[in-house]
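User: Can you predict the 3D structure for this chain?
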Amino acid sequence: MKKTWLRNQPWGFTYAKVMVITASLFLILFAFSLFLSKTLLAKWFDPKHAQMEANKKLYELALKVDSLP
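Assistant: Here is the predicted structure, written as structure tokens:
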């Protein structure tokens, strides 16, 4: 009788472990995305930042138009 490799595993396979690992990975991914949205990506999601950028471009355009002969 041949022994399969799966039967010789010391850690075993259970659906509970799969669900715990999946839930842990999901929570880690969720925490990482929350961290990014609060820090590095905050300026992209902030409407005030978009308004400030639009005002800056508008001001530069107004300066260019005013300097035309």
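The chain has one domain: 6-66. Residues 15-38 form the longest helix (24 residues).
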